[in-house]
Amino acid sequence: MQLVVEGIRIDVRSLGGIATTIAFPEWSLCIDLGVVTQAALRCDTVAFTHAHADHVSGLNQFLGVRRLYGMRPPRLITSAAIAGPMQRLVDAMGELQGRPFESVVEGVEPDGEIEVGRGLRLRPFPVVHQEHAVGWSLVRRVQKLRPAYVGLPGPEIARLKADDSVELFDPIDDPLIAVTGDTQAEGLDLSHPWVRRARVLMIETTFLDDERRDSNAAKVGKHVHLDDLPAILAGVEARAVVLYHVSQVYRPAEVESAIRGRIPEAWRNRVHVVVPGDDERL
Ligand SMILES: [Zn+2]
Predict the structure, then answer these.
(1) What is the pLDDT of residue 260?
(2) Ion ligand 1, residues whose Cβ is below 5 A away
């Protein structure tokens, strides 16, 4: 499914428990790789929220097909806590192929960040799911003219630019998008500035119905239930929200209407839903 949300192109395939792959073609960046899509294959960098099967199962095919096509070894990014086992997974897959894969898994510490090209940085944020699961936020570092110099004529700015002793710009982080990965709502803290202020927020929303709310299915599996959304959205400043990772217990035809009716009024026109195709079910 392809979406353009607040100017950001998102190529996403997501069905909770089966496969989730979120590609951002303009940035050659993919988050999670439950299945290889055409858009994901072209991404030079993949960041994983966690290593549950529906988020990593495409990795073997991804590495193999990219190598078959002579594409560069992709960058693979995880939280620092799982970089070791993920590297061993890559190494084992290479060994079984009879030729090692060259990718080196890059782990990011909880307060760290990693540059992913085009002035973009990925920063992990804590979520409540499997131990070591993280969400990822993507920020763009831009250089902003210091207030003291705003309004100066062009030639004067050019003269100051050439003067090494003058600091004309301040680096500013523009939070573009934040992706929760899997998480439960309880205890989820989206107050980090680059998460709270992300232009687009992608939230997993696995469960939609009363029955699974009453049976605590979301809590048991540590996922978000639709009824959790008002509390989550109350704290964020996103211009738009994308809901994904819907469980396959729902028929695709009922997903959109089930969600539409229960979204807080203020958000109704700013919520996009990733509706899985019938052929994605297993
Ligand atoms: Zn999971």
Answers:
(1) 79
(2) 52, 182
